[in-house]
Amino acid sequence: MNKEKIWLSSPHMGGNELKYIHEAFEQNWIAPLGPNVNGFEQDLKDYLFSDSPSFGKEDKHSGTPSFRRGQGEVKTEAGEVAVLSSGTAALHLALILAGVERGDEVLCQSLTFAASANPIVYLGATPVFVDSEEDTLNISPFYLEEAIKDRIQKGKKPKAIIAVHLYGMPYKVEEVQEIASRYDVTVIEDSAEALGSSYKGQKCGTFGDFAILSFNGNKIITTSGGGALITRSIGLKEKAVFLATQARDQAPHYQHSEIGYNYRLSNIAAGIGRGQMQVLDTHVAKRREMNMFYRELFGRVKEVKVLNEPENTYFCNHWLTVIKAEDNRAFDTDALRMHLEKENIESRPLWKPMHMQPVFKDAPFYGNGVAEKAFENGLCLPSGSNLGEEEKNRISTAIKNFLQ
Ligand SMILES: *Cc1c(COP(=O)(O)O)cnc(C)c1O
Question: Whose Cα sits closest to atom 6 in ligand 1?
Fold first, then answer.
């Protein structure tokens, strides 16, 4: 049996990516700046902010979330986008712009990829991990507040909250925002997996004080590697770009008053991004179709839940479809994973929570086992937008055989 591997999520080109790369070659913009960098930023900005009902305006419906606004703060018409070398770089810069320094504490969703938490440590700050809630598997508002209260009582108010839209599922935006406002803590929205998702019609990536996106090879769109930082003002974007290009002062010679980074996205990679933006919505539709496909497959299996939007105010890009067993004695997701592997079909356990990681064993954690249980009993299934009928047939046969 030499069947081709079915991946969890693999790159899916739209067709126009090479056109933008050719243009870059023709104009010799082989650099971390140029027309594709600017064009990709504009495309993202248009996509994220064009149809947000409430962004930058007075809330039409009370409770409609938008960027947190303190008293007397200037309302921005739309956020600004800076494209960078990775989502991790974007998180690093977001934390710097949020004022995180050595010795500070930063709250972070525990059930996530390590890239959400690592940049906290780059800055010499300490991550404080928070459990998930059952509906979206994202940061639990209850334990978020417990953590804030307890850290304040211990003498230190956390500087920021990193909340993640895991597998594309929006977190509980209003609850998180309300707590952040009440305690006046900056929200950094990790939207690495959620480009194309939205909540109450407003796109993920526009809720936090800062937000990040990732264009790594396995994400919903890819630039082969890349990311973006979304800020609420042009001034913050300029500051991000300044830091991302070695923090050069305005001077004819090379002068530096701050430590900088080399974090800008290349004009070649940005060309791929421009092509990918043209197919983003069809990619989202395809991934949602994959989710539907799994919901039908597991429809009559009572022991397994296919993770889905808890209410119709949530719109998930279903970057990856996640199944969760009530308990691994009733349904063994790991046995399913190994069964699929024999058929050359990739599936993976959910992210191993950060508070269970050897490298973060000393970090504080607030929770009651939801993330741990999701890790033990969950499985991510192949969800790529490039999976066709043939792949679906193979997946469906393999799963049906396993279920029998
Ligand atoms: C992929 C990912 C990142 C990091 O993005 P890179 O572009 O790979 O650096 C951060 N957070 C989450 C949740 C991710 O899935």
Answer: 87
Q: What is the CATH number of the domain that holds 332?
A: 3.90.1150.10
Task: Please work out, in degrees rounded to the nearest 5, the angle formed at the alpha carbon of residue 75 by the alpha carbons of 69 and 76.
Answer: 120
User: Would you state the structure tokens that stand for residue 11, as one six-digit string?
Assistant: 């790159």
Distance 371 CA to ligand 1 centre (A): 18
Q: Tens-of-pLDDT digits for all 404 residues of the chain?
A: 568 999 999 999 999 999 999 999 999 999 999 999 999 999 999 999 986 444 433 333 334 344 443 433 333 358 999 999 999 999 999 999 999 999 999 999 999 999 999 999 999 999 999 999 999 999 999 999 999 999 999 999 999 999 999 999 999 999 999 999 999 999 999 999 999 999 999 999 999 999 999 999 999 999 999 999 999 999 999 999 999 999 999 999 999 999 999 999 999 999 999 999 999 999 999 999 999 999 999 999 999 999 999 999 999 999 999 999 988 788 999 999 999 999 999 999 999 999 999 999 999 999 999 999 999 999 999 999 999 999 999 999 999 999 98
Q: Is residue 7 part of a domain?
A: no
The greatest distance separating any two alpha carbons of the chain, rounded to the nearest whole angstrom, comes to 72
Which positions ≥6 away from 82 have C-beta within 8 Å? Answer: 41, 90, 93, 228, 229, 231, 237, 240, 241, 244
**Ligand 1 pocket test: which of 86, 110, 113 has the largest number of ligand atoms within 8 Å of its C-beta?**
113
Q: What is the 227 CA–ligand 1 centroid distance (Å)? A: 8
| Same-domain pairing of 269 and 288 | no
Residues 285 and 215 in one domain: no
Distance from C-alpha of 144 to C-alpha of 128, rounded to nearest angstrom? 10
Ligand 1 binding pocket includes 88 (Cβ within 6 Å): yes
Do 380 and 239 share a structural domain?
no
pTM higher than 0.85: yes
State in Å: Cα 129 to ligand 1 middle.
Answer: 17
Range of the domain at 395: 280-403
